[in-house]
Amino acid sequence: MSTRQREPLIFEQSVPGKRGMDLPPLDVPPPRDTRAAHLRRRDFGILPSVSEVDVIRHFTRMSHWNYGVDDGIYPLGSCTMKHNPRLNEKAAALPGFTDCHPMAPDELAQGNLELIYTLQEWLKEITGLPGITLQPSAGAAGELTGVMLIRAYHVSRGAARRIILIPDSAHGTNPATAAMAGYEVLEVASGPDGTISFTDLDEGGKTRRGLNSLLAEFGPEVAGLMVTNPNTLGVFEQAIQEVADALHAVGALMYMDGANMNALVGVARPGDFGVDVMHLNLHKTFSTPHGGGGPGSGPVACSAALEPFLPVPVVRRDTRRVGEGEVETHTYRWDWDRPKSIGKVHTYHGNFGMLVRALAYCLSHGADGLKQATLRAIVNANYIRARLSGTYHLPIQSPTLHEVVFSDTRQAAHDVHTLDIAKRLIDCGFHPPTVYFPLIVPGAIMIEPTESESKAELDAFCEAMLTIAREAETDPELLHQAPTTAPLRRLDETTAARRPVLRWRSPETT
User: CA-CA distance, 446 to 425, in Å (whole number)?
Assistant: First the structure.
């Protein structure tokens, strides 16, 4: 199929009387439609009438429009869209994992409970934190769980704190999470190096508050700070221990958004530099790319002080010695007796299939392999940084880890902007990187290649980016029209966001 061809909707291909199957005639009376009138769709009619070959070709052609991590580099910054190991998928599909009911009694689910317990121990070691829950079903759910733990901790101490501090380089879900948990959000400025500023900054006559002055003014009311480390610029917060010490001095806690743990696993443990609670994105760092709507998994690890407040239940291991040799025998159980718990945050026990994938990922890599993956992710990002620097503006000069953020400053001189560059990448056969984020970088282009990509794939991506930069100088109108070879041309994104068309209507009803 030509990529220029627009595929009609399956309803538009319908021809009355055409069939894709031949069923024997009914030998019972036809069913009566007993639905109440208000439950019947008046504009739907019947299902499309198409042949089997039409159906197969339609959806095959549609699948060719898609771009996934199996097609090529998926450089979405802060999203860690790495290769999805097929071994993990096979492990998650084993009948013992897929067929076990979540309400099965503990004695009939020992293997699954052991898997959860084992994964908990791996994640505790990776984060350097002694408490953990695997319940949250994604990063945002993990964020909310972590902030709820902070709230429960302060309430248990009789402290009605009302403020969460969030750096301006944080993920967008962080302020939303804090607000959902009932907190007021105050922004902490980032300095020229891209990290949290301890001092106030004067930008064009406007003062942006640093950490020290915020803590000096609001200290007793601050419940905690939500920090992403490395932050959304890909920069490691080198003063993170000092940040933690300043928070702890006023009785506040530090929450770390673990979305960028792909830059830390096996190299640095958040618990060792003062983090009190954090979430992990298993569906990013530990196995399955999270595009396409899930499923996800966002376990939360925490300090000993917060452990009593973890959601119920948690898996416990009981050990006894058996026989003359006193061989250790383990049994596993759900522990529901947790009077200080914040309660449940997910139906049953989380997205179990993702837990299987994550443990398979850990066991197949081993400790050394996990560290090697981290180091390769950092090398790949810095290779892209080195190849594109000078052609694309690099607003922050600090060393970067797993991702790098450019801007469209140089291309804007030719009236070519970030969106034009992203759309032109589609013509080049690549999924665009994250654009216009983080917000503190105007015209941001955030690239995260992950450890999965070979040098050949990185070079192909970089060559496309360099070619686009040359086109911006010589033929900017070409970029304004991009994409030109995709099935659909450039959309009116504002109208699509504000007035989306979410269902098909037959011509007779429109």
Answer: 14
The answer on pLDDT for 390 being more than 70 is yes
Q: Percent helix, strand, coil in the chain (nearest 5)?
A: 40, 15, 45
pLDDT single digits (tens) 417-428? 999 999 999 999
| pLDDT of 509 over the 80 cut | no
Four-point Cα dihedral 479, 480, 484, 486, nearest 10: 100
CA distance 237 to 228: 9
Decide: 169 and 237 in contact? Cβ < 8 Å: no
Distances (CA, A) of 47 to 11, 51, 55, 102, 124: 8, 12, 12, 36, 52
Q: For residue 417, give the amino acid letter.
A: H
* Structural domain spans, the chain: 1-66, 369-496
Asked if the bond preceding 313 is cis, omega within 30° of 0, the reply is yes
Across 225-248, average pLDDT: 96
CATH class, range 369-496: alpha beta
Q: Residues 300, 282: contact at Cβ < 8 Å?
A: no
* Chain-centroid distance, C-alpha 493: 23
Count other Cβ atoms within 10 Å, centred on residue 186: 18
Q: Which residues pair with 224 in a beta bridge?
A: 164, 253
Q: Which residue has the tokens 């009694």?
A: 105
pLDDT for 75-94, tens place per residue?
Answer: 999 889 999 899 999 999 99
pLDDT > 90: percent of the chain? 76
* DSSP H stretches of helix in 429-501: 455-474, 476-481, 493-498
β 444-447/404-407 pair status: antiparallel
DSSP 373-399: HHHHHHHHHHHHHHHHBTTBB-S--S-
What is the DSSP code string of 241-260?
Answer: HHHHHHHHHTT-EEEEEETT
pLDDT tier for residue 502 given thresholds of 50, 70 and 90: confident
